[in-house]
């Protein structure tokens, strides 16, 4: 963990200087919210298995009304087809939401767009997609300004009462949502389908920045830490990487996030099956091309406390393993626990690196806003992160608070839209 922290610091510095680095360190054109944001805004959230539209009313005194929202499933054909089809679908969802919520036809809504992919920004309202991650492949989008693509789709679908005024990463939305209420918050983290973080950096430290001073002298930086690659890979990591949609990229993400944790546990199990250590020589694989060993399964197996691991047995039957012994199930449970423990320790090291970049001696208090299915739901994950932070910082770990910030990517985008 100490080695990861050291390498992370060095990659962060290089990224901030604009030199070659696995960390992109993207200036997001966003500062901490002032608390004066007011009005009704729309927010869009694209970046995982669903697309979401929300409307949120911000009131004075840093208060918000409960948001109205609707989720739409993103089918495989959409994320792997043509970009214009994907954006047409998004525009149709927005149109349906506006009609369903009876939002005033005569009014113009400012929209905050959470786009959770590495995006190069020239200002708050434009973002060029650098590269798709998390299995997205829609053609004709990489290198293009996604706000433009969305605006053209909205025009094609006849939606005229919206204006996309801000595009932000989901980590930034999460950070802004928490720091709206908590002045100690200086970092936002996503541990979900993908993983990434942002933090507040002093302008003087962003040596590649040419944009002049900001009012606070700070700027939120999207680290894109999923791409950090100074890590020791096992044979399983290499196997997973070479079979992925983006070999050689997003190495940390492939060891940590929900899209891959189940696959990794599955690959380890497959190797034990191959060596006839697991399932008594029956060559039945729990994970292969046609079968996905989901991260949810790995989490359920890890947390199984039922007698003889009977819940794991039911789950294994579901994935086609009819006969397993208690020893098999115990071994599989251990595999799942090791995979998630490593993921939590890598995440904790990356968090520790960012916090010590901001405050090397941990003199102040720090809140880390965290969202995502792995942090929220994966068995014992948040506890494992906390114990790794204690291992790193000893008593001083109490200065760091991790706060689950649900729906940050929706609310935060609306708050940011209100600052524009
Ligand atoms: C991937 C994306 C990143 C996003 C993260 C969490 O790593 O590249 O932009 O923040 O997933 O959704």
Can you describe what's shown?
By secondary structure, the chain is of the alpha/beta class. It is built from 14 helices and 14 strands. Strands 1-12-11-10-13-14 form a 6-stranded mixed sheet, with helices on both faces. Strands 2, 3, 4, 5, 6 and 9 form a 6-stranded mixed sheet that branches. The chain has a two-stranded antiparallel ribbon with strand order 7-8. A hairpin with a 3-residue loop joins strand 10 and strand 11. The relative contact order is 0.17. The model has no long low-confidence stretch (mean pLDDT 93). Alpha-D-glucopyranose binds next to helix 5 and strand 11.
Give the topology.
Layout: H1 2-17, E1 26-27, E2 39-46, E3 50-59, E4 63-64, E5 68-73, H2 76-80, H3 83-100, E6 109-115, E7 119-123, E8 126-129, H4 146-156, E9 162-168, H5 170-179, E10 185-191, E11 195-202, E12 218-222, H6 235-242, H7 251-256, H8 261-274, H9 295-302, H10 310-318, H11 326-358, E13 366-371, H12 373-377, H13 381-393, E14 400-404, H14 408-419
Parallel strand pairs: 2-6, 6-9, 10-13, 13-14
Antiparallel strand pairs: 1-12, 2-3, 3-4, 3-5, 7-8, 10-11, 11-12
Helix pairs in contact: 1-11, 3-4, 5-14, 6-8, 8-9, 8-11, 9-11, 11-13
Alpha-D-glucopyranose binds next to helix 5 and strand 11.
């Amino acid at each position: 963990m100490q080695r990861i922290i050291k390498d992370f610091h060095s990659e962060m510095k290089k990224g901030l200087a604009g030199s070659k680095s696995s960390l992109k360190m993207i200036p997001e054109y966003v500062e901490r919210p002032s608390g004066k944001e007011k009005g009704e805004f729309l927010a869009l959230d694209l970046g995982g298995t669903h697309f979401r539209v929300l409307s949120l009313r911000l009131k004075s005194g840093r208060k918000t009304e409960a948001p109205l929202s609707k989720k739409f499933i993103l089918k495989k054909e959409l994320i792997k087809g043509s970009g214009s089809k994907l954006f047409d679908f998004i525009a149709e969802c927005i149109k349906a939401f506006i009609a369903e919520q009876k939002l005033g036809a005569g009014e113009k809504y400012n929209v905050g767009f959470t786009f959770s992919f590495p995006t190069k920004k020239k200002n708050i309202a434009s973002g060029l997609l650098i590269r798709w991650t998390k299995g997205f492949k829609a053609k004709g989008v990489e290198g293009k300004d996604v706000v433009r693509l969305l605006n053209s789709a909205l025009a094609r679908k006849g939606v005229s009462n919206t204006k996309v005024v801000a595009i932000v990463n989901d980590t930034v939305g999460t950070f802004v949502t928490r720091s709206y209420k908590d002045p100690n918050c200086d970092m936002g983290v996503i541990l979900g389908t993908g993983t990434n973080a942002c933090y507040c950096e002093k302008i003087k430290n962003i040596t590649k920045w040419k944009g002049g001073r900001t009012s606070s002298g700070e700027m939120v930086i999207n680290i894109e830490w999923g791409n950090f690659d100074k890590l020791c890979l096992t044979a399983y990591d290499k196997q997973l990487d070479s079979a992925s949609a983006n070999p050689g990229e997003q190495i940390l993400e492939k060891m940590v996030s929900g899209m891959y944790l189940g696959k990794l546990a599955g690959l380890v199990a497959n190797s034990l099956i191959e060596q006839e250590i697991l399932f008594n020589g029956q060559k039945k694989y729990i994970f292969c091309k046609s079968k996905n060993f989901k991260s949810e399964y790995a989490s359920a197996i890890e947390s199984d406390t039922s007698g003889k691991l009977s819940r794991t047995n039911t789950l294994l039957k579901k994935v086609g393993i009819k006969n397993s012994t208690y020893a098999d199930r115990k071994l599989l449970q251990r595999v799942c626990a090791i995979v998630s423990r490593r993921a939590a320790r890598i995440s904790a090291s990356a968090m520790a690196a960012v916090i010590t970049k901001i405050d090397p001696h941990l003199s102040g208090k720090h809140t880390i806003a965290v969202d995502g299915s792995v942090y929220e739901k994966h068995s014992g994950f948040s506890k494992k992160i906390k114990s790794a932070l204690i291992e790193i910082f000893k008593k001083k770990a109490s200065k760091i608070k991790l706060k689950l910030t649900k729906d940050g990517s929706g609310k935060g985008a609306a708050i940011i839209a209100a600052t524009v």
